[in-house]
Amino acid sequence: MNATESAIQIPRPAHFEAPLTRLPAALSEAEKQSLNTRIKQLLKQQNAVLVAHYYVDADTQALAEDTGGFISDSLEMARFGQQHPATTLIVAGVRFMGETAKILSPDKRVLMPTLEAECSLDLSCPAEDFSAFCDAHPDHTVVVYANTSAAVKARADWVVTSSIAVNVVEHLTAQGKKIIWAPDKYLGHYVERVTGADMLRWQGACVVHEEFKSQGLHELKAQHPEAGILVHPESPADVIAMADVVGSTSQLIKAVSELPHPSFIVATDKGIFYKMQQQAPHKTLLEAPTAGDGATCRSCAHCPWMAMNSLENILHSLETGQNEIHVDAALGQKAMIPLNRMLGFSQRK
Ligand code: 13P
Ligand code: SF4
To answer: Which pairing describes strands 178-182 and 199-201: parallel, antiparallel, or unpaired?
Structure first.
């Protein structure tokens, strides 16, 4: 907690119960092929495109690639959905990604494989509590992470993702702005440290990244001194402090290809290994430890909500039209303003 925060009451994040990670059912090659064939037909018939996040299962990522869809970080998912001519977007990820797609493309149909795929950051930050907090500090510019509901975005001046959070906050700090940051306390702390911003931080956390442990990381690094350490900034500060590269999912994938290290310890969701291995097949990838000796992990470096996406529920959604995302039109229009600000800002970098 920084000096300003200790003098101010920061609301407690909402309580929620995260599910345990359950992987999609293992499929035989024949089953996969049959699902893929049917999904491909429906994508074509319905003028639909599949947009997937790096954390969903490898089969879904492969299908997105194979069908002219897209796999990316949350920033580029938003941009792709907005720019692609398809009239239906099927978004394999978590709810805020589907909502963002709908806000940016209100005339498109946005389907998700499941509507149960939440995000702990989004759940930690109910719109009413957050809005009251913003109202209590009207002299602050409100910057929210993309991992929030449409209503929280609608209350914000800026939306950011991890790939541009530092740049946006730097830009605002240079203008002398004081900032309310929500919902991820670790990313907020990292951004504050790098930019020197004056920030009030919501105290949410990602259930996946919060589990990475610096003690275990030190031990693993001692066993693999040649390995580079890659860390997503939703991780605790002592884990970030050990990183060779701190960055968004796309930035970490780029680092695997570009850095000279023969191996990497990766502190983010292990779904990302599909793309990292594809881009750098000769490099060795190691999972960062999620728990010290004798402890347990709950998500174990795989997001319980990302794991709810599968080929089977993609097919189900396309066949039935179920799991369509709806965002109230007036709310969507308000949320679109900071989202478009984010997309515009990232383009001029
Ligand atoms: P990226 O924006 O880096 O893809 O991260 C999204 C996310 O949910 C990370 O946990
Ligand atoms: Fe949210 Fe963490 Fe899952 Fe990303 S990995 S969607 S931040 S819970």
So the answer is: parallel
Ligand 1 centroid, distance to 146 Cα (angstroms) = 9
Cα–Cα distance between 276 and 311 in angstroms, integer? Answer: 21
Q: What is the pLDDT of residues 271-304, one digit of tens each?
A: 999 999 999 999 999 999 997 655 678 888 999 9
Q: Which residues contact 44 (CB under 8 A, 6 or more apart)?
A: none
Residue 212, ligand 2, Cβ within 6 A: no
For the segment 86-122, what is each residue's pLDDT rounded down to a tens digit? 999 999 999 999 999 999 999 999 999 999 999 999 9
pTM over 0.70: yes
| Intervals of CATH 3.40.50.10800 along the chain | 29-117+306-327, 121-205, 209-296
Select 29-117+306-327's CATH number: 3.40.50.620, 3.40.50.2000, 3.40.50.10800, 3.40.640.10.
3.40.50.10800
Q: Which protein residue has the closest C-alpha to ligand 2 atom 3? A: 303
Is 345 in contact with 171 (CB distance < 8 Å)?
yes
| pLDDT lower than 50: segments of the chain | none
Closest residue by CA, ligand 2 atom 8: 119
CATH number for the domain running over 209-296:
3.40.50.10800
Name the pairing type of β-strands 109-111 and 140-145: unpaired
d(CA 45, ligand 1 centre) in Å: 31
